[in-house]
C-alpha cells in the first residue's frame, strides 16, 4: 500500500480536452487559459471554481441533464449548462448571481419533491452529492409537497449479489435509460434486473451515482469509509491502481484510482467487488516451507523462506542443469501445486 488519500477524489465535471490549441476566457473575473474543447465547467474547476452539478462527472462525456450547472455567458441568451458548453476565445462567464441561485434552488426543489427524506438513515449519508447540492443552493423547504405521482414505492432490485439498485432514491432526470423525465427508470439494461441484462458489474455507475440509488452492499452493511489508501489490485497481473477505502483497518470498498496508469479510473467486476480474499479466514499471511510434499507446512520468516527456495533452485540446477528449473507466479497463486514431481514453495514451483 502507498500513501493515504481522501476518500472522495475531486471530480472536474467533464473529461479533459486532448487538444493542444489554447483559448483565453474569464470566469468570475479570473482570466483562464485552457485547451480548445474544454467545457466551461471543467475550466472553472481548474481555476478552483466549483459549479454545482449532479449528472456531470469527469469519467463520462457530459449530457446536460440535471440543469443544476447553469451559468451566465456574456452575449448569450438564457442560462446554458456549463457541462455541455465549450469554451471560446474571449468568453466571459459568471457562475454565481441571484438569478442563477434561484434557478438552481428551484431545480433542487423538484428533485427533492420526488426523493425520500431519510438522510439520517440513508447509507449515502455523509457522501451524497444530492445532499451536498441541497446545501450549496440553500434549500430549506419544498413548495411542491410530496403528494401525487412519484417513484418512492419503486421496488429495490437485489438480484446483484454485491450491488443493490434502489430506484426510489434515484433522480429521474439522471436515469441511465431513455426516456428522460418522470417515466425514466434506473436500470441495468433493456431486460429486467441485473442478471437479465448485459451489465458486467464494473461499478462505474456507482462512481457516478449522486445518491444511494446505486450503493455497494458493503457500505450499506458497514457504513461510510473514513480514509483511503492507494494500492494495487491483487486479482490479476495487470496492476490496476485502486483506492482501498477503509474504516480503521477494515476494507469497506475498493474504488478505481483515477491516477492509476494501468486502468485510469476504470475497473473490472473482480477488482471492484471480488476483494473478499483480502480478509478471508483462509488467506495465508506468512511464508511457509516444507521439504517434502508429504511433510506439513512450517511457518518461517521471509528470509528463511527465500533462502530455502534459493538453495533448492541451486541444488536442482547442480544436479540436473540450469534448464531444469521453471517457475510460475501470480498475484493470486494461493494454492500449492504438484506438477511432474514438483516440490512447491510459497509462491513458485520448481521441478525436475
TrEMBL record:
The organism's place on the tree of life at top rank: Eukaryota
Entry keywords, A to Z: 4Fe-4S, Iron, Iron-sulfur, Metal-binding, Oxidoreductase
GO MF entry, a single one: metal ion binding
Keyword presence, Flavoprotein: no
Positions of the 2Fe-2S ferredoxin-type domain: 21-99
GO cellular component, one term: membrane
Pfam families, per the entry: Fer2_4 (PF13510), Fer4 (PF00037), Molybdop_Fe4S4 (PF04879), Molybdopterin (PF00384), NADH-G_4Fe-4S_3 (PF10588)
GO biological process assignments: respiratory electron transport chain
Domain 4Fe-4S ferredoxin-type as annotated: residue spans: 190-219
Domain named 4Fe-4S His(Cys)3-ligated-type: residues: 99-138
4Fe-4S Mo/W bis-MGD-type domain boundaries: 226-282
InterPro entries listed in its UniProt record: 2Fe-2S_ferredoxin-like_sf, 2Fe-2S_ferredoxin-type, 4Fe4S_Fe-S-bd, 4Fe4S_Fe_S_CS, Mopterin_OxRdtase, Mopterin_OxRdtase_4Fe-4S_dom, NADH_UbQ_OxRdtase_Gsu_4Fe4S-bd, Prok_molybdopt-oxidoreductase
Protein name: NADH-ubiquinone oxidoreductase 75 kDa subunit, mitochondrial
Species, as recorded: Panagrolaimus superbus
Lineage summary: Eukaryota, Metazoa, Ecdysozoa, Nematoda, Chromadorea
Amino acid at each position: 500500500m502507498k500513501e493515504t488519500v481522501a476518500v472522495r477524489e475531486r471530480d472536474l465535471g467533464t473529461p479533459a480536452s486532448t487538444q493542444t490549441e489554447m483559448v483565453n476566457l474569464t470566469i468570475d473575473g479570473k482570466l483562464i487559459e485552457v485547451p480548445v474543447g474544454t467545457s466551461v465547467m471543467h475550466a472553472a474547476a481548474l481555476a478552483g471554481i466549483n459549479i454545482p452539478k449532479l449528472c456531470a462527472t469527469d469519467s463520462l462525456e457530459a449530457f446536460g441533464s440535471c440543469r443544476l450547472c447553469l451559468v451566465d455567458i456574456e452575449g448569450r441568451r438564457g442560462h446554458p449548462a456549463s457541462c455541455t458548453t465549450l469554451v471560446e476565445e474571449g468568453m466571459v462567464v459568471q457562475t454565481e448571481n441571484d438569478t442563477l441561485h434561484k434557478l438552481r434552488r428551484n431545480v433542487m426543489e423538484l428533485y427533492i419533491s420526488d426523493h425520500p427524506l431519510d438522510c439520517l438513515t440513508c447509507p449515502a449519508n455523509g457522501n451524497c452529492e444530492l445532499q451536498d447540492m441541497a446545501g450549496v443552493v440553500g434549500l430549506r423547504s419544498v413548495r411542491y409537497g410530496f403528494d401525487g405521482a412519484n417513484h418512492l414505492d419503486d421496488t429495490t432490485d437485489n438480484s446483484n449479489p454485491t450491488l443493490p439498485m434502489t430506484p426510489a432514491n434515484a433522480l429521474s432526470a439522471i436515469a441511465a435509460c431513455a426516456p428522460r423525465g418522470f417515466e425514466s427508470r434506473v436500470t441495468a439494461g433493456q431486460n429486467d434486473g441485473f442478471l437479465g441484462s448485459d451489465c458486467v458489474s464494473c461499478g462505474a455507475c456507482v462512481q457516478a451515482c449522486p445518491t444511494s440509488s446505486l450503493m455497494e452492499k458493503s457500505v450499506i452493511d458497514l457504513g461510510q469509509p473514513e480514509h483511503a489508501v492507494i494500492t494495487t489490485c491483487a486479482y490479476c497481473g495487470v496492476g490496476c491502481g485502486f483506492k482501498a477505502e477503509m474504516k480503521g483497518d477494515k476494507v469497506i470498498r475498493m474504488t478505481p484510482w483515477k491516477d492509476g496508469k494501468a486502468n485510469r479510473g476504470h475497473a473490472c467486476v473482480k477488482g471492484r467487488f471480488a476483494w473478499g480474499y483480502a480478509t478471508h479466514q483462509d488467506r495465508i499471511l506468512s511464508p511457509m516451507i516444507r521439504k517434502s510434499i508429504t511433510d506439513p507446512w512450517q511457518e518461517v520468516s521471509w528470509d528463511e523462506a527465500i533462502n530455502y527456495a534459493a538453495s533448492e533452485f541451486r541444488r536442482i540446477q547442480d544436479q540436473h542443469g540450469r534448464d531444469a528449473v521453471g517457475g510460475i507466479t501470480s498475484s493470486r497463486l494461493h494454492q500449492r501445486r504438484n506438477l511432474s514431481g514438483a516440490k512447491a514453495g510459497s509462491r513458485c514451483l520448481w521441478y525436475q
